[in-house]
Design brief:
The structure holds 2 protein chains of 2 kinds. By secondary structure, chain A is an all-beta fold. Chain A is built from no helices and 11 strands. Classes of the chains: A mainly beta, B mainly beta.
Chain lengths: ~110, ~110
């Protein structure tokens, strides 16, 4: 069974630009969550999508948005990039009907804003 | 919201010794507690988890204990090996979805 796939693995963007990251969950999983990981703040929850609907949202500004498609693949978008958005963005895939259950992470997308 | 604290931030042990990492959480409604291992350049890997209706769970050299009354849970690794060296994260989750609150991580070094 294939794991969680995130693309691209690395990105370099200029301040003010926007970026879109992609996540393909484990086959059959309907929940996709996104996290930002930085040395200073650790792992912080961005949002969770389940069956194309945002089910939970963390405390990030509106510049961070996401969506989920009917095949459960998810994208997150960051507009008007700031230097502080440089981070490892991780996607986690969960399956089943239980509200909180095992989550499997992808390798992440390393975003550098210059 | 939920707040998870994790200690210690760094831990060095000799190969073969045991390692213990401790976490506390603040919201008594949290009912799912996973542990993740993250190696350099990789995403977190789920190594063991426990639900609030269970006090202890073991998987080979790894065990997790949960004290709901005190709101703390711990990871125990026995007979440590150099390949156990990594950063370990604890997390807590409420029964509202797959939103995890993570601890700040423990960098474990196993000295051969």
């Amino acid at each position: 069974k294939a794991g969680v796939t995130q693309t691209p693995r690395y990105l370099i963007k200029t301040r003010g630009q926007q970026v879109t990251l992609s996540c393909s969950p484990i086959s059959g999983h309907r929940s996709v969550s996104w996290y930002q990981q930085t040395p200073g703040q650790g792992l912080q929850f961005l949002f969770e999508y389940f069956s194309e609907t945002q089910r939970n949202k963390g405390n990030f500004p509106g510049r961070f948005s996401g969506r989920q498609f009917s095949n459960s693949r998810s994208e997150m978008n960051v507009s008007t990039l700031e230097l502080g958005d440089s981070a490892l963005y991780l996607c986690a895939s969960s399956g089943g009907q239980v509200l909180n259950t095992e989550a499997f992470f992808g390798q992440g997308t390393r975003l550098t804003v210059v | 919201g939920e707040n998870v604290e994790q200690h210690p931030s760094t831990l060095s042990v000799q190969e073969g010794d045991s390692a213990v990492i401790k976490c506390t959480y603040s919201d008594s409604a949290s009912n799912y507690f996973p542990w993740y291992k993250q190696e350099l350049g990789k995403g977190p890997q789920l190594i063991i988890d426990i639900r609030s209706n269970v006090g202890e769970k073991k998987d080979q050299r790894i065990a997790v204990t949960l004290n709901k009354t005190a709101k703390h849970f711990s990871l125990h690794i026995t007979e440590t090996q150099p390949e156990d060296s990594a950063v370990y994260f604890c997390a807590a989750s409420l029964p509202t979805g797959n939103q995890f609150y993570f601890g700040t991580g423990t960098s474990l070094t196993v000295i051969p």
